């Protein structure tokens, strides 16, 4: 977690402090007064008191102060004191009050009751301490804001008088001594703390007694006294079982968790230098399938947990700082403290209503009491398109291929000499090889850069964390309108103790606020008709990109040159330029919440949390007048301005009561929440005839002229409003941290359903057994030090459908206009758009999960295993109904989907002297199967014309198959010769072609009837990976650190076509056309002879288009060095420089750009469709990470 | 502890207030509990029925107008090797599993909306215009009849659905459906006012269009089924020929509709922006009469404001005339294909036999309609090449009636669509705004002649075309319908009701075509006997398989489209 510096990170102190408090542990009290609860020795750690002021003033003040507060605090802080006849104790307290320093000492060794007078003006801390302890035995050491007082002399004196004494030194793994470690004799009040050199001395011991060494941020160690000198190495507690994880409305010690959850520390995310947190999570979370939607900047990810359970929204619920429904993309990864993913139903049941797809809990960085720490992380890099060697044909190859296929299919060939008279010769003699559109569009070495500053700190009364970040990224393809993405975030969290009694927070208030602003522009990467990358692949290489004047080669140039291969050809660069170079989308998002927590008695916490989200988006574009081809023109320029905003609020109240009776620990939670969304609207206007032709900066509607029905388009509509009301409760029980059980019940009411069908009830049960605590396991504890068995069951809901399905709503959309006698003026039509379904209600996901967590070799090896069976019942689905019913089908609760799987994660964590390393590998398997659809057909149909125009339905949902499976003909090779065909037909074989010739595909007549038709189509591919894999390796040596991340997916298929086969036969080809297809007997038995235009072999969807998509991506390799370890005197805590490479290698046999294809024709339940995909960039970057 | 009390109180309040907390209001849609309540609502409800006719144009592959055209003898399938449906419709081949799903869906959505309007019209309490309710009810009944007539002509018999509650019904008999159509049309005629053109609400169904449609229904029903009277639902009454003649004479005498002066002025190529550079139209002094002209009784209208849907391909809802797009030529788009500039898919080239029959028939010597209806590409646009690498069944002849037209402005800029000059878009797809004329006065006159076996209507139509009067004979009437109304989606059902389907074989087989640039002759297929196929199906099309499955077998497939029909899936030319 922390390298180089052995001094405990103040961030950790507070975290652990809370951990201990939360879990009611009675090990150490960080309090000045005598502890009343168990340990009555006086290990005092003074806490400072900060000014209690109103929230706003505080934030402002801290924001200002903190910028200066951290530059070597001890040197820069000046203190004035004027105290007469005061105890040393009071003096120390006064120093704490007027500064951020705090003192650590043992008051048995330090005489703090000594009365002194002190009068100093504007001195630094060293001068004050030197005056205060002048002529005493007290030694002091100032470590940043921490001051440790010790008494060497008294130690020695005591050593000489006491017998049965043990001495030693406590060090960290790095060898550096740790001052301030608590050392005490188990079961007694006898104890001490280590001095500035990490030395301790403790006496009055008897045989077989144990010493316990504990220090925040390190694992506590218990050692039986067996010699007089015992040196101890404390191990940092980075992934300890004592650590807590978020479980929704609370936290729980990791070793007590009975569900299947994953925690990823913010630091691991930040280290990946990913643009957003989901990208960074890719290799870190088994069972969580995260796939980029596109490699274009700012495009986001598709995410599903434990398989797809619905054709509706399959996104997991995101809860940011306790507020449901936030956006992870809007967060800077550096602002994230940790992400917890609740995968099983029992864990996520506390979010019942919307947890059917799992829950992602994000905790942003919180302030910690202690000195302010300022850190900066910044990197700059370059990115390049990862095109996997794909090349379109050049002009000469293209002419050859087109004409040879025409001739072989009995059609006339093109006379290119007359079609492109001015270019033909230069192609033939090799002076011009045609246009390589892909190459022309590449934006090589596209820059990416990020800067972020984080500040955390506080007192025991007020804690604050702030973050500011900027990220800028260009796209690697789209040179005539380079895709651009910029994100700014401001993040502010603070919490304040309003009332403290006996050092316990009685009333705490706080807030978390994230503000995100983005700018984005880019290409269209959608279906075959609006995919700019596909355009680059299909455009003719015979068309020049630029004319002699250096402008785009367009229609007028074709006319001038008599270029007439096809004057409707569009220069794809020009198309990108006119449509995408003058546009921009900006968004602003506020995610905020404020809470108050009241704890009248120690065991009880009442918390109220109110959240608010605001999202606003502006889009503006200017499309100039153009004439790109004979039939692609824009006669008037167009200005579009679109604005929208939406808001949402939540309010939740919980009561938490924790109690222990002997070894029974019970944690009760009850709560209630309400949520409303959809306050907002959008407004969009397009109009023509700019007063400032050609100027994007002036592209505002007020600068357009005239209104008319074809150019002017206006729309404005409200957001869909809705609400959710919920009640929930949870009981977590454990006996001696060995037997655990948990019960959750949640009731949710959703506005999406009719009264009487609104309320859904979501129960869960889980149990765990830490079997390694049992005596019978002790003999093997040296090998396996921890083993927990888990079992759980639960139900979650999903209500994510269009509202008003229970009413026969009347629609007034543009589909129901009619133009009686005026083609410009529609008469508005209205019609009932659905048959109402009053009974529509929740879809329920029920999941059973068994698993275990084991630790071996003193926790060096961790193994987690899970098996689950998740059934989505009453799946909300629009199932096809009889067309004769005359209107839209409503959502019905009409299907079941089963996802079954296994997850295994292995982590190894160890060090060899200074060499620390860890490696983790995770593997997840999921099988997805639809088991019921409530109509006769048992099918939900997918779209046609997806891979290419005039192609049939490619993907569908059908009972007995995975969701969105690829549907088409199976082929059994290629007819190699006429003899084979004759034999085939002679044996009663049936062909799909009108008449088969050698080189034709052998389509399989799967049902054996007299004809090959749709009834013979089968599953030809499954887009869902059977296995997903994550791999992480980290190591560090002295100041060096190296990390490697990889992820992969196996066992799934991709449907790919980079061109049209039927209606646009002149689309360009990729160079594999030469090697891939049948050219004569024996050439290949997989791909048919290549033909021009429509041909059954190509037009009919078959496994011809399906490829295995297995891949492993080395997603990140980072290498860094902390200069602080070489230059110890640097006035910084850390100065790490690093280089990092992302998407360095992709191991795959897939022939397309990028096997990580998230595109699914715009449907959440379809995926793995590659029709020209924006590949993910290969990025090389260098950065610096400074902690002041 | 006081605070806990407050919280408990707050929680209790919340719990009791939860249901109303969760009630939401729809700000963009009404619902059937409060709609329709005003006259405006009622008008919108009727408009919503009309809009389904546009929706049906989104998919010409199973639009009745397009299918009837392909199935007739006066066009061949054409298109490219991709346009299998057009070529299959030409031959009544089995094109694909769920063929006609769109028309099935869209027509039933129209029927559903009409049912809803008819059953809820009385909920409107506040009528602000006298007679509005009756006019709207008339339109609802008319449209329901129009939709069922499409369905029953296409599919023979279909479930007869008259309520808005979903019910999985089997097919009703053709007689039951015709009885309902007749009932609806008579009801509509009763509701509609006697307002004459042009004082009617242009673009709406009227008494006159209902009378004309009823005549068409009568002629098809009696001709095809060999009956003499139409049954009427909810009544023992029958409608015989004399009733129909009364209706159609009312239409002829009282509607205010009439023939316009030159038949060619019905078609957009005669519009001034196109005509000024189109010598044929310019030289003949043609002047487009526009949409909703005096001759037009009922048409489907399009819009200047069509947008592509989110997927970027389909029009949002059929507000551009995609049928024209399918007929438009390939690789046009420039001056060489002028005036038929917008690029399309070259479906439905005109039959060579139509072109030669017209020229050789002595009764039609000097008929201006021949060149006004058919474009011989070799003559009118000799430089146009097209896309020989893709076009099949290319006869070199085009229908001029439904063909997108370009235009030039003063500066010589070529526009993809003349519609640009009428506020439309300069786009090869979105600029296709030409109305689809569904009933026009010439048809009314010819139906009258046929019903009465008199020559008045026949000669009125002939005279307009510059042809002399002739005596009435059924043969003469049939020829006149073929030439006057060709490419207007009437021929196919005329052949069926006359029992003249054999002409499809005679008129199509053996005509010269080019397939992918190579000269060939048209065949139905070497092993394909068209009449066997027709007799197996009686000219009724395939009910989409998906509907049969979804009905759990209650809906039965039409004859001739069972598994055996999979023998009829092979096109005669090589798709290689």
In what range is the share of β-strand residues of chain B?
5-15%
Can you count the beta strands of chain A? 60
Main β-sheet, spatial strand arrangement of chain B: 2-3
Largest sheet of chain A: 22 strands, antiparallel, barrel
Helix content range of chain B? 40-55%
Low-confidence stretches of chain B: 310-314
Largest interface: A-B, 108 and 119 residues
Low-confidence spans of chain A: pLDDT under 50, at least 5 residues? 1-71, 155-162
> What spatial form of chain B do the alpha-carbon principal axes imply?
globular
State the distance separating the first and last CA atoms of chain B: 86 Å
Gyration radius of chain B, rounded: 26 Å
Shape of chain A: globular
Q: For the CA atoms, what is the radius of gyration of chain A?
A: 34 Å
End-to-end C-alpha gap of chain A: 17 Å
Q: What kind of oligomer do you see?
A: heterodimer
Content of β-strand of chain A: 35-45%
Number of strands of chain B: 11
Structural class of chain B: mainly alpha
Mean pLDDT of chain A: 85
Largest sheet of chain B: 2 strands, antiparallel
Number of DSSP helices of chain A? 19
Notes on the structure:
The complex is a heterodimer of chains A (1188) and B (576). Chain A has 1188 residues and is mainly beta. Chain A contains 19 helices and 60 strands. The radius of gyration of chain A is 34 Å and the shape is globular. Chain A starts with 9 loop residues before the first helix and ends with a strand. The relative contact order of chain A is 0.10. Residues 1-71 and 155-162 of chain A have low confidence and may be disordered. With 576 residues, chain B is mainly alpha-helical. Chain B is 42% helix and 6% strand. Chain B has 22 helices and eleven strands. Chain B has helices at residues 2-22, 39-55, 64-71, 84-91, 101-120, 132-155, 174-191, 207-225, 241-254, 272-275, 279-283, 322-327, 352-360, 369-373, 377-380, 441-452, 456-464, 474-484, 491-498, 502-508, 530-537, 545-550; strands spanning 30-31, 230-231, 238-239, 296-300, 374-376, 397-399, 407-408, 414-415, 436-440, 512-515, 518-521. Chain B has a two-stranded antiparallel sheet with strand order 2-3. Chain B has a two-stranded antiparallel sheet with strand order 4-9. Chain B has a two-stranded antiparallel ribbon with strand order 5-6. Chain B is globular, with a radius of gyration of 26 Å. In chain B, 59% of the residues are buried. At the A-B interface, strand 33, strand 35, strand 39 and strand 40 of A face helix 1, strand 1, helix 2, helix 5 and helix 22 of B. Strand 39 (809-811) of chain A pairs antiparallel with strand 1 of chain B.
């Amino acid at each position: 977690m922390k390298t180089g510096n052995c001094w405990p990170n103040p961030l950790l102190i507070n975290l652990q402090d809370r951990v201990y408090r939360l879990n009611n542990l009675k090990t150490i009290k960080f309090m000045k007064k005598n502890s009343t609860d168990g340990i009555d020795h006086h290990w005092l750690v003074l806490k400072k008191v900060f000014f209690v002021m109103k929230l706003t003033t505080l934030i402002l003040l801290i924001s200002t102060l903190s910028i200066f507060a951290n530059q070597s605090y001890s040197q820069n802080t000046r203190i004035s004191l004027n105290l007469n006849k005061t105890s040393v104790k009071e003096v120390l307290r006064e120093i704490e009050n007027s500064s951020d320093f705090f003192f650590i000492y043992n008051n048995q060794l330090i005489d703090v009751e000594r009365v002194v007078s002190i009068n100093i003006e504007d001195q630094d801390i060293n001068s004050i301490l030197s005056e205060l302890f002048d002529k005493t035995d007290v030694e002091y050491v100032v470590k940043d804001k921490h001051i440790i007082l010790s008494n060497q002399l008294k130690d020695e004196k005591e050593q000489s008088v006491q017998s049965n004494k043990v001495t030693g030194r406590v060090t960290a793994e790095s060898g550096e001594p740790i001052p301030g470690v608590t050392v005490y004799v188990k079961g007694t009040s006898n104890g001490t703390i280590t001095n500035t050199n990490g030395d301790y001395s403790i006496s009055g011991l008897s045989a077989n007694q144990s010493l316990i060494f504990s220090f925040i941020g390190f694992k506590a160690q218990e050692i039986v006294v067996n010699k007089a000198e015992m040196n101890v190495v404390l191990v940092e507690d980075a992934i300890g079982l004592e650590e807590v994880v978020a479980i929704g409305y609370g936290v729980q010690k990791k070793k007590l968790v009975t569900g299947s959850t994953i925690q990823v520390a913010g630091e691991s995310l930040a280290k990946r230098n990913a643009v957003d947190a989901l990208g960074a999570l890719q290799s870190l979370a088994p069972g969580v399938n995260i796939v980029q939607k596109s490699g274009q900047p700012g495009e986001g990810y598709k995410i599903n947990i434990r398989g797809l359970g619905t054709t509706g929204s399959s996104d997991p619920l995101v809860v940011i700082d306790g507020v449901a429904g936030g956006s992870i993309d809007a967060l800077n990864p550096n602002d994230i403290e940790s992400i917890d993913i609740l995968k099983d139903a029992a864990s996520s049941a506390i979010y019942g209503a919307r947890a059917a797809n799992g829950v992602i809990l994000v905790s942003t960085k919180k302030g910690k009491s202690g000195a302010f720490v300022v850190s900066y992380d910044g990197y700059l890099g370059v990115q390049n398109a990862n095109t996997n060697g794909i090349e379109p044909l050049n002009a000469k190859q293209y002419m050859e291929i087109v004409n040879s296929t025409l001739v072989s299919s009995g059609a006339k060939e093109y006379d290119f000499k007359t079609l492109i008279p001015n270019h033909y010769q230069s192609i033939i003699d090799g002076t011009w090889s045609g246009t390589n559109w892909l190459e022309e569009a590449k934006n090589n070495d596209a820059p990416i850069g990020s800067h972020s500053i984080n500040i955390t700190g506080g007192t025991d009364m007020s804690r604050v964390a702030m973050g500011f970040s900027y990220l800028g990224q260009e796209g690697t393809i789209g040179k005539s309108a380079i895709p651009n993405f910029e994100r700014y975030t401001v993040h502010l969290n603070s919490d304040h103790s309003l009332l403290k009694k006996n050092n316990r927070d009685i009333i705490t208030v706080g807030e978390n606020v994230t503000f995100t602003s983005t700018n984005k522009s880019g290409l269209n990467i959608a279906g075959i008709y609006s995919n700019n990358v596909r355009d680059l692949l299909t455009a003719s290489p015979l068309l020049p990109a630029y004319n002699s004047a250096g402008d785009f080669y367009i229609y007028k140039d074709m006319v001038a040159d008599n270029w007439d291969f096809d004057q409707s050809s569009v220069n794809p660069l020009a198309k990108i330029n006119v449509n995408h170079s003058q546009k921009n989308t900006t968004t602003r998002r506020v995610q905020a919440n404020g809470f108050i927590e009241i704890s009248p008695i120690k065991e009880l916490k009442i918390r109220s949390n109110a959240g608010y989200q605001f999202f606003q988006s502006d889009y503006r574009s200017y499309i100039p007048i153009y004439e790109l081809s004979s039939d692609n023109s824009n006669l008037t320029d167009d200005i579009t301005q679109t604005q929208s905003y939406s808001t949402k609020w939540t309010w939740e109240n919980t009561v938490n009561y924790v109690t222990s009776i002997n070894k029974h620990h019970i944690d009760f939670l009850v709560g209630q929440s309400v949520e409303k969304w959809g306050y907002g609207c959008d407004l969009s206007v397009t109009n023509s005839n700019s007063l400032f032709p050609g100027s994007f900066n002036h592209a505002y509607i007020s600068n357009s002229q005239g209104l008319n029905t074809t150019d002017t388009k206006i729309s404005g509509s409200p957001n869909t409003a809705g609400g959710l009301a919920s009640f929930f409760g949870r009981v977590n029980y454990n006996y001696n941290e060995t037997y655990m059980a948990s019960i959750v019940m949640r009731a949710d009411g959703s506005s999406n359903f009719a009264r009487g069908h609104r309320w859904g009830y979501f129960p869960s049960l889980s149990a765990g057994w830490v079997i390694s605590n049992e005596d019978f396991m002790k003999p093997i504890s040296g090998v396996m030090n921890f083993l927990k068995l888990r079992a759980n069951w639960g139900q979650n809901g999903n209500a994510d459908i269009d509202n008003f399905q229970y009413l026969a709503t009347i629609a007034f959309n543009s589909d129901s206009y009619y133009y009686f006698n005026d083609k410009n003026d529609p008469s508005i039509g209205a019609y009932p758009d659905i048959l109402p379904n009053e009974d529509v209600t929740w879809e329920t996901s029920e999941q059973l999960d068994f698993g275990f967590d084991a630790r071996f070799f003193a926790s060096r090896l961790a193994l987690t295993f899970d098996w689950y069976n998740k059934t989505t019942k009453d799946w909300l689905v629009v199932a096809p109904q009889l067309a004769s019913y005359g209107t839209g089908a409503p959502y019905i609760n009409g299907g079941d989907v089963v996802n079954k799987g296994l997850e295994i994660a292995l982590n190894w964590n160890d060090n060899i002297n200074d060499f620390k390393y860890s490696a983790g590998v995770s593997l997840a398997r999921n099988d997805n199967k639809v088991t019921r659809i409530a109509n006769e057909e048992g099918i939900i149909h997918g779209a046609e014309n997806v891979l290419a125009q005039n192609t049939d339905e490619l993907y569908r949902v059908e009972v007995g198959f995975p969701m969105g499976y690829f549907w088409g003909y199976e082929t059994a090779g290629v007819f190699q010769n006429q003899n084979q065909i004759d034999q085939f037909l002679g044996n009663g074989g049936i062909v799909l072609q009108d008449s088969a010739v050698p080189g034709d595909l052998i389509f399989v007549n799967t049902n054996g009837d007299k004809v090959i038709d749709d009834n013979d189509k089968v599953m030809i591919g499954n887009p869902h990976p059977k296995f997903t894999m994550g791999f992480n390796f980290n190591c560090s040596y002295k100041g060096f650190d190296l990390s490697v991340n990889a992820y992969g997916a196996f066992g799934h298929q991709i449907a790919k076509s980079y061109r049209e086969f039927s209606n646009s036969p002149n689309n360009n080809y990729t160079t594999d056309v030469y090697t891939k297809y049948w050219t004569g007997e024996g050439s290949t038995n997989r791909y048919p002879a290549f033909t021009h235009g429509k041909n059954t072999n190509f037009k009919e969807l078959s496994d011809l288009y399906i490829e295995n998509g297995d891949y492993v991506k080395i997603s990140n390799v980072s290498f860094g060095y902390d200069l602080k370890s070489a230059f110890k005197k640097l006035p910084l805590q850390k100065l790490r420089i690093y280089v990092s490479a992302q998407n360095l290698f992709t191991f795959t046999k897939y022939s397309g750009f990028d096997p990580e294809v998230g595109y699914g024709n715009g449907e959440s339940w379809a995926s793995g469709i590659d029709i020209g995909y924006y590949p993910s960039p290969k990025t090389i970057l260098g950065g610096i990470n400074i902690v002041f | 502890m006081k605070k806990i009390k407050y919280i408990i109180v707050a929680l209790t309040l919340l719990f009791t207030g939860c249901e109303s907390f969760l009630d939401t209001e729809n700000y963009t849609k009404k619902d059937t509990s409060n709609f329709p309540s005003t006259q405006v609502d009622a008008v919108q409800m009727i408009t919503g029925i009309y809009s389904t006719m546009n929706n049906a144009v989104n998919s010409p592959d199973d639009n009745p107008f397009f299918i009837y055209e392909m199935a007739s003898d006066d066009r061949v399938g054409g298109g490219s090797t991709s346009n299998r449906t057009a070529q299959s419709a030409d031959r009544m081949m089995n094109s694909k599993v769920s063929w006609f799903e769109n028309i099935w869906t869209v027509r039933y959505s129209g029927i559903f909306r009409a049912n809803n309007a008819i059953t809820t019209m009385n909920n409107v309490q506040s009528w602000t215009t006298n007679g509005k309710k009756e006019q709207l009810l008339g339109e609802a009944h008319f449209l329901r009849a129009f939709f069922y007539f499409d369905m029953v002509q296409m599919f023979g018999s279909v479930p007869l659905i008259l309520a808005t509650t979903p019910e999985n019904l089997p097919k009703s008999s053709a007689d039951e459906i015709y009885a309902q159509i007749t009932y609806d049309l008579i009801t509509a005629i009763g509701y509609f006012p006697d307002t004459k053109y042009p004082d009617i609400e242009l673009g709406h169904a009227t008494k006159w269009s209902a009378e004309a449609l009823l005549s068409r229904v009568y002629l098809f029903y009696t001709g095809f089924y060999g009956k003499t009277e139409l049954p009427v639902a909810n009544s023992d009454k029958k409608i015989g020929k004399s009733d129909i003649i009364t209706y159609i004479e009312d239409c002829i005498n009282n509607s205010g509709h009439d023939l316009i002066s030159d038949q060619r002025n019905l078609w957009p190529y005669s519009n001034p922006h196109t005509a000024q550079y189109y010598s044929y139209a310019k030289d003949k002094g043609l002047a487009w009469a526009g949409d909703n002209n005096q001759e037009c009784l009922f048409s489907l209208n399009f819009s200047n404001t069509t947008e592509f849907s989110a997927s970027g391909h389909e029009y949002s809802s059929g507000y551009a005339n995609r049928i024209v797009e399918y007929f438009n030529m390939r690789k046009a788009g420039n001056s060489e294909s002028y005036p038929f500039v917008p690029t399309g898919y070259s479906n439905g080239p005109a039959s060579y036999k139509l072109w030669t029959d017209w020229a050789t028939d002595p009764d039609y010597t000097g008929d201006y309609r021949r060149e006004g209806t058919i474009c011989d590409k070799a003559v009118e646009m000799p430089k146009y090449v097209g896309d020989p690498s893709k076009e099949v069944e290319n006869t070199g002849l085009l229908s001029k009636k439904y063909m997108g037209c370009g235009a030039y402005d003063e500066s010589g800029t070529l526009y993809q669509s003349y519609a640009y000059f009428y506020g439309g878009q300069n786009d090869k797809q979105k600029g296709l705004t030409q109305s689809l004329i569904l009933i026009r006065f010439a048809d009314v006159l010819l139906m009258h002649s046929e019903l009465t076996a008199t020559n008045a209507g026949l000669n009125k139509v002939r005279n307009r075309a510059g042809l002399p009067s002739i005596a009435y004979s059924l043969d003469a009437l049939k020829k006149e319908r073929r030439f006057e109304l060709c490419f207007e989606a009437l021929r196919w059902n005329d052949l069926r009701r006359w029992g003249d389907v054999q002409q499809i074989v005679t008129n199509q087989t053996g005509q010269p075509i080019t397939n992918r640039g190579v000269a060939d002759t048209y065949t139905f297929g070497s092993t394909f006997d068209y009449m066997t196929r027709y007799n197996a199906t009686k000219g009724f099309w395939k009910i989409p398989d998906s509907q049969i499955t979804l009905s759990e077998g209650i809906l039965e497939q039409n004859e001739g489209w069972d598994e055996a029909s999979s023998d009829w899936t092979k096109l005669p030319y090589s798709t290689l």
